[in-house]
Amino acid sequence: MNVRFFVIVLLFAICPAGWGQGKQAPPPDVQTIDGGAGQPLPLLLYAPAETAARPSAAIVLFHGGGWTVGQARWMEAAARLMANAGMLAVSVEYRLADQAGVTPFDSVADARAALRWVRHNAARLGIDPQRIAAGGVSAGGHLAAAAAVFDEPFGDVVSARPDALVLWSPAVAVAGDGWFGKLTGGTARAAALSPDLHVRPGLPPTVLLQGEQDSVTPAGGAERFCSRMRVSGNRCELTVYPGVGHLFTRNLQQQEKPDYAAIDMKIDADADQVALAFLRDLGFAAR
To answer: Closest Cα partner for 211 from 255, 257, 176?
Structure first.
């Protein structure tokens, strides 16, 4: 996955239904918290579209961009999709690897810090601390999965482990990825942070949405991860869409630098519905 010039602008190009019909979506609430190393970590909070009688679920979202580029705003349409389904959505501006002092290990630390903050502030945010999902696109899918799979390097009273995972074109098998190895500091360190190699019992229910012809985060990695999840007794649902590549593109020759006009919007919309159906079944999404 050579992603040095790989920029993902948005996975979802259509704002979800429900915010239309004369109703303008409110801007996100911006919170800045202490991140994985005490540095400022900006979060964008998208409130549920309707007030619920009981505490709502939440989903913490991580953008893609090969661990080196991107911003929290890239997940806005996905965040609004989840907010419209009755969840608090939080998009994270995690640290980006710079091939110097910052690595994907730091990005994972930020993912944990964001999840822990959301759970610690559950009462203030009006959410259920036992219904906090993590979701991510491509490299962001790796961060969400890593927060669930790997034990934290130090103990904390408040857990950073998500209660469910929603992963789009996720990088869950990165041990043999040369780019990821370069960013992490070598093959052994890449393997140490590859979710598919560390699956065990007790991981949260997971849904993966994947293009069959994906050359950036190949379908084989998603299939291997999900298979190992099931063997370990974990719930894992995988939908593989034939004929499309990374982010459901139809332009299979240009996946690392995506042709956004080539994204199959019917498949993209179907993936939205599969994710929402999964979250409804878990009792996370209200609709």
So the answer is: 255
- The CA distance from 16 to 81, in Å, is 5
Burial class (CB in 10 A: 0-12, 13-18, 19+), 30: exposed
Question: Is residue 69 very low, low, confident or very high in pLDDT (cuts 50, 70, 90)?
Answer: very high
The CA-based angle 229-286-201, given to 5 degrees, is 15
Q: Convert the pLDDT of each residue in 1-32 to its tens digit.
A: 444 334 444 443 333 333 334 467 789 999 99
The 3-state DSSP class for residue 49 equals: coil
User: Measuring CA to CA, how many Å separate 182 from each of 68, 96, 97, 191, 227?
Assistant: 12, 14, 10, 12, 27
**Residue range 226-247, pLDDT digits in tens:** 999 999 999 999 999 999 999 9
Which of 42, 61, 57, 242 has its CA nearest to residue 138?
A: 61
3-state secondary structure of 53: coil
What is the pLDDT confidence band of residue 95, given thresholds at 50, 70 and 90? very high
Q: Which long-range contacts (CB under 8 A, 24 or more apart) does 72-75 make?
A: 72/42, 72/43, 72/44, 73/44, 74/8, 74/9, 74/10, 74/11, 74/137, 75/10, 75/11, 75/137, 75/140
Three-state DSSP class for residue 127: strand
The pLDDT score that the predictor gives to residue 67 is 98
Where residue 129 falls among pLDDT bands split at 50, 70, 90? very high
